[in-house]
Amino acid sequence: MNKSMGAKIFNALNYTVLTIVGLVTLLPFIYVVIISFADPTEYLTKSLVLIPEKWSLSAYEYIFSTNAFVHAMGVSGFLAVFGTLVSLIVTSALAYVLSRKRLKGKKFFLVAILMTMLFNPGMIPNYLLVDSLGLMDSIWALILPALTSAWYVFLMKNFYQEIPDELEEAAKMDGCSDIGVFFRIMLPISVSALAAFGLFYAVAYWNTYFSGVLYINRDSLRPLQVLLQMLLISASQMADPSMAAMLESERTVPPQVIKMAAVVLSSLPIVMVYPFLQKYFVKGMMVGSVKG
């Protein structure tokens, strides 16, 4: 179809504006990556470094030479992998149970879950709950409070409701129990939804910060974002003993360069995983979003 002159002008302006917005959005991220690889002496002598004359890995070499950063990445990695796996199992299992018509007290459970979406108890009640359960300074304090999401439960519930009951009945005639139907039938056919929700859970666990500040006092259990925040706020005058070794590097690597490298390392895992799961996003987020 031949487009009118007005449509062509509109498309040209639209593409131009979107390109400019995209470049403006990407520029800070590109600058962070460039500074993290810039030579420390060049960064100190120039007011602005867009394309370094000399590239250097000194900031990354230092970061990986410190046990604090490497250990924090291990904690966040464990949260992102194990926490996501447990959250997906709990969310899908709860959604499957709530989708069954034969469940007694179904309305009560649905209302109870809905209330958690509408009313947040707040920071102090959550802190008292975690403390009363004996989870302080425990890795479970970073997993259990964020174990599932009511919104994801409702989406998964609607998805399971769209699956014909005959499929479940056929599986039971072949000898499957309710647990067998869930693991052998329901989970395999909900891969797209699990992939989409799994990435959201993984990002949330990887970015765990507030729970780490509230519930964790041990250096060995601090997630990456807490350590990164400590570095970003006071990299030059850190009083925490666990960061003392990191401060020694400031004689050879400027604190700003270390900060940029830390930001790149903390963002890299999620950036690498996202393209592989992107194809599941549209299908995964649309399933169960029409029927109530």
Give structural notes.
- This protein is mainly alpha-helical and 292 residues long.
- It has two domains: 52 residues, no CATH class; 228 residues, MetI-like (MetI-like fold, Orthogonal Bundle).
- About 5% of the residues have low confidence.
Helix and strand arrangement:
Layout: H1 5-37, H2 40-45, H3 58-65, H4 67-99, H5 106-118, H6 123-132, H7 150-161, H8 165-173, H9 178-189, H10 191-206, H11 210-215, H12 224-234, H13 244-247, H14 255-277, H15 281-286
Total DSSP E strands: 0
Mean pLDDT, to the nearest integer, reads 80
What summary fits the major beta sheet? none
Number of domains: 2
Q: What CATH architecture of the largest domain do you see? A: Orthogonal Bundle
**Tell me, what is the CATH class of the largest domain?**
Mainly Alpha
Number of helices: 15
The backbone outline, from C-alpha atoms, is globular
Helix content: 55-70%
Features:
2 domains, 15 helices, 292 residues, MetI-like fold, single chain, mainly alpha
Q: Concise description?
A:
It comes from Paenibacillus marchantiophytorum. By secondary structure, the protein is mainly alpha-helical.
